[in-house]
Amino acid sequence: MDDKVIKTANKEAAQVLEWGESRGIETCFSRAEKLKSCPIGESGACCKVCHMGPCRLVGKNAEEEAHGICGASLPVVAARNLARMVAAGTACHGDHGRDMVFTLLAVAEGEAKDFQVKDVKKLYKVAGILGIEFEGRPVNDVAKDVASRLLEDFGRQRGEVNYVKRAPKKTQERWKKFGIVPRGIDREVAEVLDRTTMGMDADADSILTHALRAALANGWGGSMISTDLTDILFGTPGPVKAEASLGIFKDDEVNIVIHGHEPTLAEMIVDVVYEPEMIAYAKSKGAKGINLGGMCCTANEVMMRHGIPTAGGFTNQELGLMTGLIEAMVVDVQCIMPALTQLAKKFHTKIITTSEKVKMPGATHMQFDEHRAKEIAREIVRTAIDNFPNRITQRSHVAEKFPVIAGFSQEYIEYMQGGRWRASFRPLNDAIMAGRIRGVVGLAGCDNPRVPATGIHKFLATELIKNDVLVVSTGCSSASCGTAGFLTPEMALEHAGPGLREVCVAIGIPPILHLGACVDNTRILTIASAMADEGGLSDEIGGMPAVGIAPEFITEKAISIGCYFAASGVPVIFGGESPVGASKEVTKIMTEVWFERFMGALHFEPDPEKILAMALNYIDKAREALKLRKYEPGKFGAERVLMDMAARRILEKSAAPHAGVGGINEAGS
Hints:
Blueprint: H1 3-7, H2 11-21, H3 28-34, H4 39-42, E1 46-47, E2 55-56, H5 62-65, H6 74-108, H7 120-129, H8 139-155, H9 169-177, H10 185-195, H11 204-234, E3 240-244, E4 254-260, H12 263-272, H13 276-284, E5 290-295, H14 296-306, H15 317-322, E6 326-331, H16 340-344, E7 350-353, E8 364-365, H17 373-386, E9 402-406, H18 410-416, H19 419-422, H20 426-434, E10 439-443, H21 455-466, E11 469-474, H22 475-482, H23 490-495, H24 498-507, E12 512-516, H25 521-534, E13 546-550, H26 556-568, E14 571-575, H27 584-598, E15 601-605, H28 608-625, H29 645-651
Parallel strand pairs: 4-5, 4-6, 6-7, 7-8, 10-11, 10-13, 11-12, 13-14, 14-15
Antiparallel strand pairs: 1-2, 3-9
Helix pairs in contact: 6-8, 6-10, 6-11, 6-26, 7-8, 7-11, 10-11, 11-25, 11-26, 12-14, 12-17, 21-28
């Protein structure tokens, strides 16, 4: 196996990387080779929360005998380190959710005139969950009340976040029993930091229990709020065709990349690039038009709603610049490599920062403001157009692109199983009970340059669907699958097991469902809750034949996500070495104790084959505990018949044309 395959499993990325390495261009891949991980910090055995340290707790009997200068044990130090990762990840997604609340509030008060409520049905759904009256009221009045109510979730000191009530009652009972119902998002983040300072909580189980409380404030708070309000403002996704690859860029057009996580500016740029005046301006500079593409989770946001193509996930951002075809990379927040500005100097690309929370030396800063959103978007697009004549000839460009079907929200997954009149999760539950679908895996998280980037995602995706496991993907995992050509219905015919293939063909869906950005992992929670409410499987999220996997995780956000799934009842497996592996006690708490209390767990496993085996084992044991039919490939029990799209159209033939369910366009079906 040659170097380019070892560094990235995506052949288009490998082609660009090889070109860059031959010219001595540094990337995250070369830096990963040069900079080795600290083995003490990597395993959670280093404490640096006070200036008596850093203290390294190592040795043959470190678990029992090693202590920091203050006396903190190895389990306490490892627990503190993990808890602080959870707090940082929760703060990151919490701020994302808060920004979306303020945007909705500005829209409702008439201060952000370039935005509007696009999915009124979703607004009313959320209002109903929050106990807000909406019948016969002006849309913006309802939106203001929704935003005001959700804003309380950030600073609340007592009580509980609003969306806790969306979880199955039995799941809520577990949270209450062990005291992890989150009060307010900021409240729980602050308490993690308080508990984990020197001289505070010195019990590993206590520290980790509160870390779960903070994680739930992310999953059932900040991230879920962001997903709902993004749907309300920009439309609830339905299936849409798009493309994925570093080959999406065009030689004869102005190429703009939107990169980051928040969708507000990206939505405005989507609108602006199609304006006749802007296209005419691009032509005046010698371009044939404007080509918009995405990177990372902003790409997922605009792909899900508009079919904007993606150039890939985290490790592709530098490689995108190396194509030499990008006039401007416009970034907002999260997962932005500081290396971009130095790399951009070797090409002509402008790096444009837009958030006061993300500034980089060497970048052009153009502060985004919701109150003059389109005006700023036009300024950014004109800046990119003005840069078109500055392209240099030395570059690496690939041509191959892969089709993608994205846009599977909870609302559409429910609709696709029976149409407008019979929408429910009953067919999916029945398919699982009968053994056509063995179970469900949420495949999520970053792509990592310390492994063959995107390779573990691709391996697990193909092996899982071969074993009749339905895969739902988010974030950079969706990008990994998309740039490999895995997100099409044809994938089911080629690779899926016989039961999963029958279900996919009947409904007309891919065996890997693209659910959106990393905050949209919360769609998995609401889907699981709906499946529990439907009945026939588990009456709570815990116990379902479902597993979460983040095979190439990088960020603290990923740890927070994994913890809120574990607390919600889902076993989670992370790829790579454990950040708390130095402590047997902490490892036992996260695997055995959490599973006993919440029916969820958190594992770390560097071997992809073992990750697969562990996931299938969890699924099969859950089936056995639920007394479901034993999974046997190609052998199915009795079940309700899934209606295919043709049958649903016959059923709905007499209905007038409509906008779809929850704002979803049926043309995407």
